[in-house]
Amino acid sequence: MIDMDETDISFFKDGLRLDGRRTDQLRPIKIEVGVLARADGSCYIEMGGNKVIAAVYGPREVHPRHLQEVTRAIVRYRYNMASFSVEERKRPGPDRRSYELSKVSREALEPVILTSYFPRSVIDVFVEVLQADAGTRTAGINAAAVALVDAGIPMKSMISACAAGKVADTIVLDPMKEEDNFGQADLPIAMTPNGDITLLQMDGNLSPDEFHMAVEMAMKGARDIYEIQRKALVEKYSQLEAPAVEVKACE
Amino acid sequence: MDRKVVVPGDLLSEDAKKSGDGTYVKDGRVYSLLYGLANYRDKINVIPLAGKYIPAPGDNVVGVVKDITFSNWIVDINSPYDGLLHISEFPKRIDAQEMSKYLRIGSSIMTKVKDVDPTMKVELTLNDRKLGKITTGQVIEISHTRVPRLIGKGGSMIGMLKKEVNCNIFVGQNGRIWINGGADDMDLALRTIHLIEKEAHTNGLTDRIVAFLKKEKGARS
Lengths: 251, 221
Prior knowledge:
The structure holds two protein chains of two kinds.
Chain A: E1 12-13, E2 16-17, E3 29-33, E4 41-47, E5 50-61, E6 74-81, H1 96-109, E7 121-131, H2 136-150, E8 160-167, E9 170-173, H3 177-182, E10 185-191, E11 197-200, E12 203-204, H4 208-236
Parallel strand pairs in A: 6-7
Antiparallel strand pairs in A: 1-2, 3-4, 4-5, 5-7, 8-9, 8-10, 10-11, 10-12
Helix pairs in contact in A: 1-2, 2-4
Chain B: E1 3-6, E2 11-13, E3 23-26, E4 29-32, E5 36-40, E6 44-48, E7 60-69, E8 72-76, E9 83-86, H1 99-102, E10 108-116, E11 122-125, E12 132-133, E13 138-141, H2 147-151, H3 156-165, E14 168-171, E15 176-180, H4 183-198, H5 205-220
Parallel strand pairs in B: 9-11
Antiparallel strand pairs in B: 1-5, 2-4, 3-4, 5-6, 7-8, 7-10, 8-9, 10-11, 10-12, 13-15, 14-15
């Protein structure tokens, strides 16, 4: 985190952000379901400048065998950034950061998956970041959640993820690259539509009041994202049907 | 019929007693567990649109022998779990040394799930007249979630199909289907099944299939 004084970037112009958004506005989101023919479930998501593809395989046999659990399925999540996903070429392969993101993302999704339905099996989730523009972990979780649903895996609910940040002493929703790089804090969350948080991280410093504000803002963002995820899934099977009556999401 | 597409976590009913397959109850309310079609009858069932086949006792399945061990054939049943066919479940008494004479690696069989234990050990049997090794015809694969639609309510769809295309058809719950008949008949059966698979989630399917078959048969004669 670079202090504001050290940069001459101004984050706001006429009350709007660098990309013309309000402080509580998400970047445009596009979700496509079932983009990979070989995967059991897949999803392609664009969240602003982020382009992420997620593939789900399974439940299937566990290899290597010793990872197998007798009473439940295990979940494996691999977050990977393509070497061309950032401006400066990223050295390919897993690194400290992607190990961490894989772990926290897996733990964000695992609580809603009914792993006990599939003893001795594995559910593999692969998340590939094709283009990064801050907030790839949240984009990855959103894509993975849709891909899991597309794979027909029983889940208690969806998971939606969104970040909030602090730039120039203002709390903003869904920071883009400039705000993430030169901002004061970043706070990604993942949650179920009824508000159970499954992931919460914080980078930088926030006062307790700011923290609450940021969490509230990110939760609202996640709820909006949930609606988009849900719409993408429902539409996949609605082409031949009369428009389905909207079902109320769980409260 | 009242149907709609639901995703996991969708609220289906405030009445906990209405919870059927593919749903769960939390705080007295019914939510969907699956991505599928919700069916509102006495109970609310969610029929999945995707997912892997999980064997259940009594299911007819089409399998392929993938290994032979002492006294067991290991059968791929298009599922995360392999099926085990014990030598004693073969219709006649055979010697353990001669197992590969009857079913070799790669042999296809019409079989039935006898039992599934909590660790998902799947036991198969061939002890039924309609079961056995596949020697003629062809096997096709569709998603197992479309099988209920292919069979229809009380077997209405499959009964109609068998009669109309003049083929012998064995539908495995795992999505593998054995078809046997004349070359043209088999071709028509194949195309019809693919149509059913593609449109499984739509209403009034049986009527449309009847119309499709009529048109196809009219074109042929």
